[in-house]
Amino acid sequence: MAKRWLPKWVSEYEDRHGKKRYRFRRKGFGQYLFKSAPGTEEFRTEYRACCEGLAAPKIEAGAARTIPGTFDDLISRYYRSPDFLDPSDRTREVYRGVIERWRRKYGSAKVRDLEARHIEDMMAEMLPHRTAANMLRKRLRALMQFAIRQGMAQTNPVIATKPYKVDSAGFHTWSEDEIARYEARHPVGTMARLALDLMLWTGQRGGDARVIGPQHIRQKRLVVRQEKTGAIVSLPILPPLAASIMAAPGGSLVFLLSGHGKPYTRKGFGNKVRQWCDEAGLPQCSAHGLRKAAARRFAEAGCTNQQIKSWTGHTTDSEVSRYTAAADQEALSDAAAEMLMANLRKRLANDSHKSLKKGK
Predict the structure, then answer these.
(1) Exposed, middle or buried: residue 13 (CB in 10 Å: 0-12, 13-18, 19+)?
(2) Edge-first strand listing for the sheet containing 232-236
(3) In this predicted structure, what is the pLDDT of residue 168?
(4) Based on the domain organization, do 190 and 162 belong to the same domain?
(5) How many CB atoms lie within 10 A of CB 174?
(6) Are 280 and 182 in contact (CB under 8 A)?
């Protein structure tokens, strides 16, 4: 009997032109036709989305009786569109969570009946959780833009609304003192220290750091494809990180292993870092704050936004600015003062030289 080479629930067929195609068919879930060929990274991304019920959502009882023109109808279409499928797995998971919580209450409502005042009332119901209310507004705005393309709405009422002002700088950026306190509590050779070094000396997200392993090392560099954006970064392995990797137990596909000798899940890793921070007396610190600390260090060293982006994988200067807001203001202002005075001295020297030439 021939060995099956396709993943579970994936089958091959020929379309009407005789071209080989692949589809995902699983009992109780919708069917999905793959856009990419098996063996490619794109195919693996699509397959994961199918297994998680994102690209091939679970068939709910009575779903076939979805009333045309309702949000149930619109959302079902949206889940099959590039608007939803193109972002990363993690991003889709977050989007789907926001939409489904809202859908349970308003799914049967007509799309054409949604007005700005309704959206403002929905957001007000979520107070005092302003960030969650703003997230809902973003998702509804994207959903209504899709509705316009589908001919289910003429305008986007979300545009007429305003998000709540959120007085927060986001995740706390680790200071040098906090980094030193963590290092004192968790010496080189421990998993706790390796976790810090992998994030601090690469500037990567915790979700990416937890899966970094020997296979990512190529010619003394770390080559990482970021889960959230798909961006690929190639980074030199700096001495502190190299020492931490060499001191930790090896022999696995990933550097960071749980107490059971297995890789961490995304949630499990976040919880573990939380525990390690608490042990060091740093309740205000988090995994993501280390990524911001790495960007801060680059800014304090005088690196350009473009140089910082080459490490963090950010694509816009505004994103980098949010991460480097905690850069040492005194050090930066001193550096700016030195550059200013050097430029003035150069200008005075040039003016003096011109005056001498005229005097002759």
Answers:
(1) exposed
(2) 217-218, 221-225, 232-236
(3) 65
(4) no
(5) 28
(6) yes
Judge whether 206 and 269 are in contact, CB under 8 Å. Answer: yes
The mean predicted confidence, pLDDT, of the chain is: 87
H or E stretch at 13? strand 10-14
pLDDT of residue 3: 52
User: Which positions ≥6 away from 192 have C-beta within 8 Å?
Assistant: 185, 186, 276, 279
How far from 146 is each of 54, 151, 158, 283, 357, CA to CA, in Å?
17, 9, 12, 42, 69
Check whether 115 has a pLDDT greater than 90: yes
State whether 72 and 163 are in the same domain. Answer: yes
Handedness of CA 138, 144, 145, 150 (dihedral sign): positive
Domain count, the chain: 3
Q: How far is residue 290's CA from residue 296's CA, in Å, rounded to a whole number?
A: 9
Q: What is the pLDDT of residue 186?
A: 97
| % of residues, the chain, pLDDT over 70 | 93
Instruction: Give 233's strand partners.
Output: 224
Q: What is the residue range of 307's domain? A: 176-329
User: Between helices 41-51 and 89-106, what is the axis angle to 10°?
Assistant: 30
The string of pLDDT tens digits covering residues 230-276 is 888 999 999 999 999 999 887 788 999 988 888 898 889 999 999 99
Residue that finishes a domain, picked among 152, 168, 184: 168
Q: Is 20 helix (H, G, I), strand (E, B) or coil?
A: strand
Closest alpha carbon to 156 in 124, 115, 215: 115
What's the CA gap between 294 and 311, in Å, rounded?
Answer: 9
Mark whether 287 and 147 lie in a shared domain.
no
3-state SS assignment for residue 213: coil
What's the angle, vertex CA 13, arms to CA 10 and CA 17, rounded to 5? 145
Q: Where are the beta strands (DSSP E) in 191-315?
A: 217-218, 221-225, 232-236
More reliable by pLDDT, 184 or 32:
184
Tell me the per-residue pLDDT of 12-44, one tens digit each, with 9 for 90 and over. 988 878 888 899 998 888 788 888 888 888 888
Task: Judge if 141 and 22 occupy the same domain.
Answer: no
Q: What does the pLDDT read at residue 344? A: 84
Per residue in 69-85, pLDDT tens? 999 999 999 998 999 98
